[in-house]
Structure formats: structure tokens, C-alpha cells
From TrEMBL:
Any one GO molecular function term: aldehyde dehydrogenase [NAD(P)+] activity
EC number: 1.2.1.16
Organism (species): Morchella conica CCBAS932
Domain called Aldehyde dehydrogenase: residue spans: 29-488
Signal peptide location: none
Name of the protein in question: Succinate-semialdehyde dehydrogenase
Length: 498
């Protein structure tokens, strides 16, 4: 198929649109493969037909990665650094086309898509700089005559499962450190947004990536079978997954038989707290960026907004004013600030959360319904008067619905914020330095934003606690997830001779 929807820019390089999986350095397809259709969520127009691979093709990809590992694990760190840098350069050179593909299959506005491309590239740049710094330690031995050192080695073949909401950044955030460590990978592309992953694979080839080092498997109806193969295959030594907590638990069970190394970034239910000593305008701006980025479809979105009594009404009024000014529609229209949700199931969940809240006494101050723009659009919504018995208090909406709760005291709101089984991100606004330290330390989350609604940064470790998972991505810690520490003890060193 070809790009054929509303005002879609033509790709400068049409060869970046791939309708094939990527295994052992080759884009593969076959008349015998079943296929699935990728659609533009703004119009539901078909844009590509992709192979729906099975466990058998996944095993082929794993075998290719294992074969490549035998050589790649022995490459010099500086060689891997240059390889990642070359890939980074390819992404930057093709940023416009990558942004077009992201908007086409994900729906986010092109400005957001361009920002994602830059963010995705930054992980390859960052880990190109981390690769030569895989240091070990010299450890003073407790046994006379012995010397102890540690080295860090690649964990092996890595399976990566990424989501659709950031189709470029989520894959580079995992592949970057894996390559830097000397691992090879088999990545499962998201069924909703595989085109970006496949374009990145093409750019990896152009950067000189050896065959078998990066493999991209595609699946839709066969996703469960492909995922299970990645989990149970003993050749795979590590699984990194970003997605929902229930799926993460299933994958963890499937990995138990081979005791793989795991890192999971799972569901969130982020609190966003505004204390009465905060700068209200800054807090509103933070809430807009945090809650409505990607139309609310991010794991670190504010899901529960708590505002202290004294400034509650002022905050809600200013928030509503900003939301009313949004322009919703096709991501390719430069005037639009927000695009569609990924599919009608996402719209259904947002509608259910709004209806549940309104039935239990909340008020939809703005929005609250399915947009007339199409079945995948939902009106940006602000709800006030929320209480703890409403679904939005305990479930992640993953849509453009801002639910505002009142609170009275610091102790009360921290208890409310922590009253959830997940703990990915949390945010709060305050000008009291003592309160800032107290609340930042008390929130049961892996990441805290203080007086900011945007915490994503290549240099900052990304990950959660509780049922939001474990392990960290990005930052100096990210490469640790793809290495194992080996200790080497030298005996018989003794004293000087003679």
C-alpha cells in the first residue's frame, strides 16, 4: 500500500516505508504469511500490510541473534559506540520522514512526533557514549595472596517488547543500551505502530549494523504466541517489556522456566498534587503538559490531580481555559494541538471513566464525550468533584481526561497518592523547600517531578516501583540491565620474590 490519507506529506525517501519483518539483516515477507493491516487512527484508512509472524519465524530471528552474538559480543566498546553514533546520524538525517510515519500510524501531531524522533535519537547518542565506559572494579581481597577484579559482560540475546504510544523512543531506549553492552536483540514491534520500528531497522542497515544484531518481528493476531516464544526460548537471556501490568505479570510467569533477566516498565496511576503555596499558573501549565501530552496516552501522565482547597477553584478555572483552547484533529494539520486516540477501545475506556465519574457526582466542566471528528477522537475533558470511589481514582485512563480532586492537608494527600498498587511517576507543585523534600521522599513512585510536569530525559533513570515494575532505562544505569557482572579471583600472588 502507500501513504494515502488526508494531507499526508510524501516521504522524502519512500524506501523507509517497509511492509516486511526484519530478520538477519533482511526484510522478509512471503505469500504464505498471514498479514494484518496498519491504519491511520485519524481516519481508519489502511496504510500498510504487515506480516503476522508466528512462533516459528520468531525462533528464526532468535537463532539469527544468537549466531550474531558469537561475534558481536567481542567487538570493542569503541566500535559499538561508533555504530550507535552512525545510527543516530541516520535518524537525525531522516527525522522528517520518521515523524511523518509516527503521525501516520500513531496520530500524534507532527510537532510532537518530531520531538519524539529527537528523543529517540538521543538514546543512541547517549549509549554510544556509555559503551566505552563499561568499567569493572578492583576489589581488595580478604584472602592473603588473592586479587579480585570484576568485569561486565553482555547478558546475551535480548527480547524487547515495546508499546505503540512512542514507537520510536521506546525501541531505541531499549536497543541503545543492549547494543552498547554487546548484546543482540529480537524486538517485537507494536501491532498498531510497526512502521516506525521497521524504518529504524532500515536506518540501522545504512549505519552498518551487522546482520542478526537487530531483528524486528511483527505480529498482531499472533502476538501472544510470539511473546510466549520470546519468554520460553532458552536462547533468550533477557526480556525488557514496556506495557500494562497484567501483561507484565503474564510474561514474568512465562519467563520463570528459564530464569531470564527481566526489566519491566508497567502501568501507572500518577498523582499530580498542587499545594496552596504553589505558583498556580505554573501548576496549570505543568498539568497541561503532563496530562494531555499525546492525548493522555503516556504511562507517566497525571491520572489523579489533587488540588488543595484554597486554590482549587482558581486552578480548575485556569485549567479549563487552557483545555478549551485546544485544537483537536489530524496530526498533519499544523494548527491542531491534539490528535486521535489510538483506536476505538481507547475511546471506550475514556468514555467509561467519564460516565462513571458523572454518575457518582462529578461534573464535566469541559468536554466529556466522543468527538464528532471520528470514532477515535475523544473530547479533551476536565472533571471536578471527584471522589475515591470513582474508577478514575484507581484505574489508569490513558486518555485526555483530567480528573480533579480536592484535599486539605499534606498528610492526607500523600496517603491518597500512595493508595495504589502501582508506583511509576508522581508530580507536585510547591514553593516550600521543607515540603518539597518531605513529599518527594514520601511519594511511593520511581520518579518524581517537582514543579514540572515533564520528567522524561535521556540522562534521568526511567522506571517504577511496586506493580509498575523494576529496572531502569536511560541514564548511566540503563546499560546495567544488559550486562552481567563476572568476578575473577587470582590466587598465588603472594609477596615479592627474592
Amino acid at each position: 500500500m502507500s501513504l494515502s490519507t488526508h494531507n499526508v506529506p510524501k516521504l522524502k525517501d519512500p524506501s523507509l516505508l517497509k511492509e516486511a519483518a526484519f530478520i538477519n539483516g533482511q526484510f522478509i515477507t512471503s505469500p504464505s504469511f498471514t498479514t494484518f493491516t496498519v491504519t491511520d487512527p485519524a481516519t481508519n484508512t489502511p496504510i500498510a500490510t504487515i506480516p503476522d509472524l508466528t512462533a516459528a519465524e520468531t525462533r528464526t530471528a532468535i537463532t539469527a541473534a544468537h549466531t550474531a552474538l558469537q561475534t558481536f559480543r567481542h567487538t570493542l566498546p569503541r566500535e559499538r559506540a561508533r555504530l550507535l553514533r552512525a545510527w543516530y546520524d541516520q535518524i537525525i538525517a531522516n527525522a522528517d520522514d520518521l515523524a511523518t510515519l509516527i503521525t501516520l500510524e500513531n496520530g500524534k501531531p507532527t510537532a510532537d512526533a518530531r520531538g519524539e524522533v529527537a528523543y529517540a535519537a538521543s538514546f543512541l547518542e547517549w549509549f554510544s557514549e556509555e559503551a566505552p565506559r563499561l568499567y569493572g572494579d578492583t576489589i581488595p581481597s580478604s584472602v592473603r595472596g588473592n586479587r579480585v577484579v570484576t568485569i561486565r559482560q553482555p547478558v546475551g540475546v535480548c527480547a524487547l517488547i515495546t508499546p505503540w504510544n512512542f514507537p520510536a523512543a521506546m525501541i531505541t531506549r531499549k536497543i541503545g543500551p543492549a547494543i552498547a553492552a554487546g548484546c543482540t536483540v529480537v524486538a517485537k514491534a507494536p501491532a498498531e505502530t510497526p512502521l516506525t520500528s521497521l524504518a529504524l531497522a532500515e536506518l540501522a542497515v545504512r549505519a552498518g549494523m551487522p546482520k542478526g544484531v537487530v531483528n524486528i518481528v511483527t505480529a498482531s493476531a499472533n502476538t501472544a504466541a510470539v511473546g510466549e516464544e520470546l519468554c520460553v526460548n532458552p536462547v533468550v537471556k533477557k526480556l525488557s517489556f514496556t506495557g500494562s501490568t497484567p501483561v507484565g505479570k503474564l510474561l514474568m510467569k512465562q519467563c520463570a522456566g528459564t530464569l531470564k533477566k527481566l526489566s519491566f516498565e508497567l502501568g501507572g496511576n500518577a498523582p499530580f498534587i498542587v499545594f496552596d503555596d504553589a505558583n498556580v499558573d505554573a501548576a496549570v501549565a505543568g498539568a497541561i503538559g503532563c496530562k494531555f501530552r499525546s492525548s493522555g496516552q503516556t504511562c507517566v501522565c497525571a491520572n489523579r490531580i489533587y488540588v488543595q482547597d484554597a486554590i482549587h477553584d482558581e486552578f480548575v478555572a485556569k485549567l479549563v481555559e487552557k483545555v478549551r483552547a485546544f485544537k483537536v484533529g489530524s496530526g498533519f494539520d499544523g494548527e491542531n494541538t491534539h490528535g486521535p486516540l489510538i483506536h476505538d477501545r481507547a475511546v471506550g475506556k475514556a468514555r467509561e471513566h467519564v460516565d462513571d465519574a458523572v454518575e457518582k457526582g462529578a461534573e464535566a466542566v469541559v468536554g466529556g464525550g466522543v468527538s464528532q471528528l471520528g470514532p477515535n477522537f475523544f473530547e479533551p475533558t476536565v472533571l471536578k468533584g471527584l471522589t475515591g470511589d470513582m474508577r478514575i481514582a484507581s484505574e489508569e485512563t490513558f486518555g485526555p481526561v483530567a480528573g480533579v480532586f480536592r484535599f486539605k492537608t499534606e498528610k492526607e494527600v500523600v496517603e491518597l497518592a500512595n493508595d495504589t498498587e502501582v508506583g511509576l511517576a508522581g508530580y507536585f507543585f510547591s514553593s516550600d523547600i521543607g515540603r518539597i523534600w518531605r513529599v518527594a521522599e514520601a511519594l511511593e513512585v520511581g520518579m518524581v517531578g517537582v514543579n514540572t510536569g515533564i520528567i522524561s530525559d535521556t540522562a534521568a533513570p526511567f522506571g517504577g516501583i511496586k506493580e509498575s515494575g523494576f529496572g531502569r532505562e536511560g541514564s548511566k544505569y540503563g546499560i546495567d540491565e544488559y550486562t552481567v557482572i563476572k568476578s575473577i579471583t587470582f590466587g598465588g600472588v603472594g609477596n615479592l620474590q627474592g
